[in-house]
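Tokens in:
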């Protein structure tokens, strides 16, 4: 879950940074507030030292959507072009559950997901991140089938070909009844959607860790990436959520921590950022804001971990 955004209006008062040093092709950013208008997120991201960023296009915990004006969408596109901010990643509303057994919740989820896709297209976003949902009351396989069917139905007659939008299925912390706790579940959902809409994956480091994957030990990291390659495919991981973890491996507790300050540690993020197989991806933090400047510090930490040459 992205960190607190209560004080991010202050970021607009910061002096614009110098452009990030061209150490590599890595795209590094953070989840950014849309307070005062969605277009303000681009200015905030630039002033935080980002060259990519993630936002909510509407309230993350309410069904009622924000209405975006043409002016806001045009300004977002202009600022992204001016500051070379790409890709733009949008995270869907947390209430969306396309595996829901309650018909009313499922209907609301499908309407909300369609709205997310429509706003992402209007803003020119490259990626829309989706949690695959909770299958409480049925078996996991049925939950996967319903999520795939609901995604297809919700986007029916939307012209996804007119933009460059790809829906990213995110892995989850492995909580009971939650889809996406394993790479194989993410891969199955992607397989079901091939040819239906553009899909790929978003992998969260905290979720990997608390779901039980060993990403701290060097040998464990290699085994985990091997398993990810064999299931989802590393080329299909378009965004990495770079979050340290307050909770222990296998705990299934989704508690994000500042980069290097949790149970995962600096070295895992160093390996992640410098793996040449992942250079195509964007790396976006969803770390807490416990004290002023935490967002900038987490972005700066990720940038410092990138070595001067790819590889």
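Residues out:
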């Amino acid at each position: 879950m992205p960190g607190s955004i209560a004080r991010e209006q202050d970021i607009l008062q910061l002096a614009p940074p110098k452009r990030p040093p061209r150490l590599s092709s890595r795209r590094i950013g953070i989840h950014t507030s849309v307070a005062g208008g969605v277009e303000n997120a681009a200015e905030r991201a630039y002033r935080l030292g980002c060259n990519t960023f993630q936002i909510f296009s509407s309230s993350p915990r309410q069904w009622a959507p924000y209405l975006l004006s043409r002016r806001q969408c045009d300004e977002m596109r202009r600022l992204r072009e001016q500051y070379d901010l790409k890709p733009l990643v949008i995270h869907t509303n947390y209430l969306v559950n396309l595996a829901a057994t309650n018909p009313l919740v499922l209907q609301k989820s499908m309407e909300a997901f369609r709205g997310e896709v429509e706003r992402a297209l209007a803003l020119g976003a490259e990626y829309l991140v989706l949690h695959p949902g909770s299958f409480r009351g049925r078996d996991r396989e049925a939950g996967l089938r319903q999520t795939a069917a609901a995604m297809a139905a919700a986007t029916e007659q939307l012209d996804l070909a007119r933009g460059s939008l790809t829906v990213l299925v995110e892995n989850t912390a492995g909580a009971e009844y939650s889809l996406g706790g394993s790479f194989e579940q993410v891969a199955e959902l992607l397989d079901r959607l091939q040819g239906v809409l553009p899909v790929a994956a978003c992998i969260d480091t905290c979720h990997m860790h608390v779901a039980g994957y060993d990403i701290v030990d060097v040998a464990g990291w290699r085994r985990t990436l091997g398993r990810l390659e064999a299931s989802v495919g590393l080329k299909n991981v378009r965004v990495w959520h770079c979050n340290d973890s307050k909770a222990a491996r296998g705990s299934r507790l989704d508690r994000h921590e500042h980069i290097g300050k949790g149970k995962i540690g600096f070295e895992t993020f160093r390996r992640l950022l410098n793996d040449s197989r992942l250079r195509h991806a964007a790396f976006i933090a969803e770390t807490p804001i416990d004290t002023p400047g935490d967002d900038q510090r987490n972005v700066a930490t990720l940038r410092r971990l990138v070595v001067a040459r790819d590889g």
